[in-house]
Design goal:
Layout: E1 26-40, E2 51-60, E3 64-73, E4 76-82, H1 86-92, E5 106-112, E6 127-131, H2 137-147, E7 151-152, H3 154-157, E8 163-169, E9 172-176, H4 178-182, E10 217-220, E11 223-235, E12 257-261, E13 271-276, E14 290-294
Antiparallel strand pairs: 1-2, 1-13, 1-14, 2-12, 3-4, 3-5, 3-7, 5-6, 8-11, 8-13, 9-10, 11-12
Amino acid sequence: MAFRPRKRAEHQRINWVPHPEKRVLGFAGYKVGMVQLAYIDDSNSPTKGQEVVGAGTVVEVPPLTVYGMRLYAGKRSIGDVLTEDENILKMLGGKHKAGCEGKAEDVRLLAFTAPSKTTIGKKHIERLEIGCGGGSVDEKLELARSLLGKQLRFSDVFKSGEYVDVVSITKGKGWQGAVKRFGVKKQRRKATGRVRHVGTLGPFHPPYVMYTVPQAGQMGYHKRTELNKRIMLMGDDPSKINRPGGFAHYGVVKNDYVVLKGSIPGPAKRLVKMRLAVRPPTKDVKEVKVNEVIL
């Protein structure tokens, strides 16, 4: 499923994995751009203890507004419990099925983003479900109730040095041929009169074209999940991360931010969802010593 089906993503939902610790398991933000980080390597590589320079991706994470909680019985939703704040409810519209907390087997937070607080030009909020951790349903319900109607910040959810899984939608490249889409070899000039096409569509039997045959089609705009992106830096002072004149294709960062190690899918301004890593390389959370951010 890392490569097929190669069709346009229909949604960006996350599979939430149960966690024994009583905590919120995810957050969302907007991809800004990339920077270089000079930091002290704390791994077991040959450069351990030395300063190394590597790439990092900046994600702007304005506060999320928690407007309710969704109750589940197995994999089926049995209703929602919303906040009583009328100002928040006016922003949502639509109807919600009331849920019964006594029948719940799992609980997830309902929250929405605040793109209007950024410089990306988007006005409409984006809703999402966020998993809750806890040893029992009562612990999850208690956590969800305590957050209803409140603002949730990135620093309330994650710590510097933790590992997260990133869920995003890749850059869309539209309809492309087999050579660019699958990297098949071009035909020689005298073969068939055509160069950028597939030489064969398969064997004589089975007497149909199999789905594995490289053919033209949609390339990009696929939902992808990348595991174990380490939180290198996080803060609430945008002046420490902003470039003079702002980031290309994005602008200036105005809210809280986080810098993840390496690259993540998608173009600038795209919604990025982060969850607590389901299989981190280590359980020890050590803050990374970042000496310099090279903009």
